[in-house]
């Protein structure tokens, strides 16, 4: 049967073809073009954003909107002020948390602390960048978490957002507010352990991070008084074997004896580490400017670092040695005198590097500021510096302009002997006046004190002195020792307009110096050249003594001469150790004291305060000793109850009696 073939239908006229088939080719072409455009934009965006964002190993901190933070702080209301530091004010804020399910509706909120950094000071900017850098790096229950930031060009503000630590800083809680919780020995011990763990954590990172400013006001307390380390504005990343800025430590020259098994108090020679002062920012290519020049040491800095104690110790020690014609230091009076001069000279040159008053942020009544940690700008280095200001526009030449404009006023040479004598005379004159006054009023008290209680200046007393100190400071140099707290006030940590006393206790990091006087290790006379983990260990040692004794490291009061011996906490602790009376150091207000633990803590503190960094224990070893995993070594022989004393020490009081 012949197959029937159906004739194929005639082609449809164009206007009769289905719409679909007509539109398909151009649609396809258009979508392909759109897709390739999109791809092109995505690639471009990724390329740009890759430059601007942090490297893969670091989570970029969250960027908050300025208006959200302003709202959350009630326009930076003074009633929400938590504290005031050298470079800005810190406010309590409540931020609404977006509900993960219904992103538009907000169901809960979180309390945070917002630090408003001063955008007018170079160092404020540096600290901001530094904090931001470490915010991306550090995650530990013993370190205050930085949640994010905001940088607002229009308002010229830099803000950092942290987890809220409801009990503020340790300095305040211990010395000003005298929180009853801290009377419990157990609490103090657990705080010591928290801090040790925090520092152990940062030292244990690869590469290690050095905090550079360990002190009670940089330790914050949470709801249950657990401690966390804060303020990484001066922290830096320690890197070895990089040839950018290589600084030889004395250890490198083989001058320091190190025990290869244990770091403290040993005698077996070990090749010491060669420190390279590098910021680590180059490495992480964050573009954060922690420029190398701030770590460069001036030619005189390459001299042997001091083996003496911290500047305050030196001051006291000098006074003592002059009075007695002897020196307590076993390591040689002549050598020490040279070293001390070197430290004092260094402080002098650094204090000169004060910054002019800049346009500070007007929020919260911040006052003008100075700088800290800035060494002279080396132009060559500056040009080669990497900088990626992706969140805030920093004027590249700002630094130079400020330095050129800077009018340097010769600072008050407060570190010099004459000034000490002047102060001493003033103090005596004041004492005499007070004594006469008391006698006129028929009051008893021949030395101006009523015994042990009055040895510690009361808060109101101290605040009065601080106010006085502040007034006189406006006349003299910005950097001056607060002789009553034994710490150095930086001009900008006060509100010079309102006369407010900073809530953090007014204790600020030393101007133009990495660290804080009294807490800074002797080898850190200047720059980061000799900074190492062991510098943090030294500072931890001072902090530990402060925590145990419940007093400042240096307190010069209107007290009898015998009390003057106790003015320097470190000296006092060493003397007590020599006399086998360690427990005399413990704060009288401490309850339920565990004597064994207290002795252990003071022993650890003294080990940390050894002049040779190599002899100090590592933070890991300290944590081991505090937790009881490792046994604490005996005190170094110079602190043992019967010291092999070369110089028979006669207390000043005895000398006078003679
Ligand atoms: N996350 C926080 N939670 C609660 N209070 C805080 C927080 N951060 C800072 N503060 C308070 O604000 C004060 C000022 O902090 P900031 O870090 O600016 O200065 P500082 O460390 O005291 O001084 P400096 O920066 O000069 O060393 C602190 O001492 C503390 O009392």
Automatic annotation (TrEMBL):
Transmembrane segments: 23-45
GO molecular function: ATP binding; protein serine/threonine kinase activity
Binding-site positions, ATP: 115
SMART domains, sorted: S_TKc
Comp. bias regions, Pro residues: 633-646
Top-level lineage group: Eukaryota
Positions of region (Disordered): 292-314, 360-385, 425-456, 624-658
Keyword list, A-Z: ATP-binding, Kinase, Membrane, Nucleotide-binding, Serine/threonine-protein kinase, Transferase, Transmembrane, Transmembrane helix
Gly residues bias spans: 362-372
Domain Protein kinase: 76-635
A UniProt-annotated Pfam family: PK_Tyr_Ser-Thr
Record field: compositional bias (Basic residues): 426-436, 647-658
Protein name: Protein kinase domain-containing protein
């Amino acid at each position: 049967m012949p197959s029937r073939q159906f004739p194929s239908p005639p082609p449809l006229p164009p206007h009769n073809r289905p719409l679909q088939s007509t539109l398909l080719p151009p649609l396809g072409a258009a979508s392909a073009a759109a897709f390739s455009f999109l791809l092109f934009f995505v690639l471009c965006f990724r390329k740009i954003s890759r430059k601007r964002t942090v490297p893969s190993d670091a989570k970029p901190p969250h960027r908050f909107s300025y208006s959200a933070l302003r709202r959350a702080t009630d326009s930076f209301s003074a009633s929400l002020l938590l504290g005031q530091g050298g470079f800005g004010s810190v406010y309590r804020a409540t931020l609404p948390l977006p509900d993960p399910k219904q992103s538009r509706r907000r169901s809960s909120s979180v309390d945070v602390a917002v630090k408003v950094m001063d955008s007018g000071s170079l160092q404020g900017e540096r600290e901001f960048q530094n904090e931001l850098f470490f915010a991306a790096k550090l995650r530990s229950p013993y370190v205050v978490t930085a949640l994010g930031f905001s940088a607002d060009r229009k308002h010229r503000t830099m803000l950092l957002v942290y987890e809220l630590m409801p009990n503020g800083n340790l300095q305040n809680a211990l010395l000003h507010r005298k929180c009853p919780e801290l009377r419990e020995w157990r609490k103090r011990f657990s705080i010591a352990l928290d801090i040790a763990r925090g520092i152990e954590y940062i030292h244990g990172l690869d590469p290690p991070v050095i905090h550079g400013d360990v002190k009670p006001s940089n330790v914050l307390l949470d709801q249950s008084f657990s401690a966390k380390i804060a303020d990484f504005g001066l922290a830096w990343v320690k890197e070895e074997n990089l040839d950018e800025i290589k600084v030889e430590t004395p250890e490198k020259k083989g001058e320091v004896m190190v025990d290869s098994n244990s770091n403290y108090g040993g005698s077996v020679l070990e090749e010491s580490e060669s420190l390279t002062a590098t910021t680590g920012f180059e490495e992480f290519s964050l573009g954060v400017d922690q420029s190398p020049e701030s770590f460069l040491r001036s030619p005189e800095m390459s001299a042997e670092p001091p083996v003496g104690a911290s500047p305050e110790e030196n001051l006291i020690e000098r006074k003592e040695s002059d009075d007695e014609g002897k020196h307590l230091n076993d390591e040689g009076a002549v050598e020490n005198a040279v070293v001390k001069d070197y430290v004092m000279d260094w402080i002098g040159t650094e204090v000169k590097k004060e910054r002019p008053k800049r346009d500070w942020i007007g929020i919260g009544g911040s006052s003008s500021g100075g700088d800290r940690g800035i060494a002279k700008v080396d132009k060559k280095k500056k040009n080669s510096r990497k900088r990626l200001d992706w969140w805030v526009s920093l004027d590249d030449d700002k630094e130079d302009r400020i330095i050129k404009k800077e009018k340097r006023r010769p600072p008050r040479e407060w570190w010099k002997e004459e000034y000490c004598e002047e102060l001493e005379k003033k103090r005596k004159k004041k004492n005499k006046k007070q004594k006469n006054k008391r006698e006129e009023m028929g009051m008893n008290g021949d030395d101006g004190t009523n015994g042990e209680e009055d040895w510690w200046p009361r808060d109101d007393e101290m605040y009065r002195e601080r106010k006085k100190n502040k007034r006189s400071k406006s006349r003299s140099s910005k950097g001056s020792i607060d002789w009553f707290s034994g710490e150095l006030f930086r001009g900008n940590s006060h509100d010079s307009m309102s006369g407010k006393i900073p809530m953090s206790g007014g204790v600020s990091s030393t101007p133009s110096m990495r660290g804080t006087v009294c807490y800074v290790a002797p080898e850190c006379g200047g720059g980061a050249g000799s900074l190492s983990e062991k510098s943090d260990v030294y500072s931890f040692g001072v902090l530990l003594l402060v925590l145990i004794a419940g007093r400042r490291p240096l307190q010069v009061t209107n007290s009898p001469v015998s009390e003057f011996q106790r003015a320097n906490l470190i000296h006092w602790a060493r003397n007590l150790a020599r006399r086998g009376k360690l427990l005399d150091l413990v704060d009288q207000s401490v309850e339920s004291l565990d004597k064994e633990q207290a002795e252990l803590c003071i022993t650890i503190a003294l080990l940390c305060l050894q002049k040779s960094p190599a002899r100090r224990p590592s933070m890991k070893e300290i944590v081991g000793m505090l937790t009881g995993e490792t046994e604490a070594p005996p005190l170094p022989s110079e602190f043992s109850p019967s010291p092999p004393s070369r110089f028979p020490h006669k207390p000043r009081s005895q000398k006078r009696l003679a």
